[in-house]
């Protein structure tokens, strides 16, 4: 009986010794499993932390804004790393157009131009082949045009000559080289009257301008071509009123002849019938 109890006691001691000997490995296995779980949680936490990265944007019309968050956490036996990058690209274009609107009383007349060179009080004649200078001042112009066109028109040959195209409104004079236009123009310059026309560029010389706007301004002048001297005996004035043609002289001779015949015939007839017997 005593030996059986000793045997049982010895078995119990051996069993406890075996359990005590394997206890550290059991503890290590338990803690390893806990550490791995912790590493997974850290990775998940890092991933959650970077799913919404912080973005700093500067609005300057056009720009690219980039924000980056990185979370890294190391456990005892596990490591979790998560990186998130967010990019925001935006383009902003601001277009602002400002137009100046001039308010004009509709009762006002259209603007025009007054000649300063030459003065518009009399007709001026220019020699074809020389440079001709025209100058003017704008009057009653409330709506300033950007540019003007200047032309010269001749009704004798139904031709127009361009003196200036898109001339700045600030420039109120033009020089016309009549020699160049006379040599290169399809219709050469004639000895005739011309009309200078100043009007707003982009419009027609026949357009009617609104109140305050620049309307076509006109000025008349003459052009002539010089000729070689002609002896006085050979000169024929084609525009003089005193000069008569052969046809006119023959007509006048026939009229006076018929008047003379009528007077003589009436006198002889009256004397023959005694019309003048009472004298």
TrEMBL record:
It holds the Pfam family DUF7137. Residues 108-239 form the DUF7137 domain. Keywords: Membrane, Signal, Transmembrane, Transmembrane helix. The chain crosses the membrane at residues 254-278. InterPro entries: DUF7137. Residues 37-122 are annotated as: Disordered. Residues 37-76 have a biased composition (Low complexity). The keyword Signal applies. It comes from the Eukaryota. Residues 1-22 form the signal peptide. This is DUF7137 domain-containing protein. It comes from Talaromyces rugulosus.
């Amino acid at each position: 009986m005593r030996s059986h109890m000793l045997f049982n006691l010895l078995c119990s001691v051996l069993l406890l010794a075996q359990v005590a000997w394997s206890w550290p490995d059991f503890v290590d296995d338990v803690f390893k499993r806990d550490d791995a779980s912790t590493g997974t949680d850290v990775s998940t936490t890092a991933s959650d932390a970077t799913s919404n990265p912080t973005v700093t944007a500067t609005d300057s019309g056009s720009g690219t804004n980039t924000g980056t968050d990185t979370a890294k956490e190391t456990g005892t036996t596990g490591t979790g790393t998560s990186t998130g990058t967010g990019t925001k690209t935006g383009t902003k274009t601001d277009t602002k157009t400002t137009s100046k609107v001039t308010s004009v009383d509709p009762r006002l007349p259209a603007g025009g131009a007054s000649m300063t060179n030459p003065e518009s009080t009399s007709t001026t004649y220019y020699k074809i082949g020389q440079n001709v200078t025209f100058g003017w001042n704008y009057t009653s112009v409330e709506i300033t045009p950007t540019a003007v066109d200047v032309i010269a028109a001749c009704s004798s040959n139904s031709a127009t000559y361009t003196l200036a195209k898109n001339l700045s409104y600030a420039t109120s004079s033009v020089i016309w080289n009549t020699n160049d236009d006379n040599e290169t123009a399809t219709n050469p310059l004639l000895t005739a009257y011309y009309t200078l026309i100043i009007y707003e560029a982009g419009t027609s010389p026949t357009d009617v301008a609104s109140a305050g706007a620049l309307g076509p301004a006109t000025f008349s002048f003459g052009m002539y071509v010089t000729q070689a001297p002609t002896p006085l005996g050979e000169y024929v004035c084609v525009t003089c009123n005193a000069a008569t043609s052969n046809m006119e002289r023959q007509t006048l001779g026939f009229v006076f002849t018929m008047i003379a015949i009528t007077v003589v015939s009436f006198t002889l007839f009256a004397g023959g019938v005694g019309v003048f017997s009472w004298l």
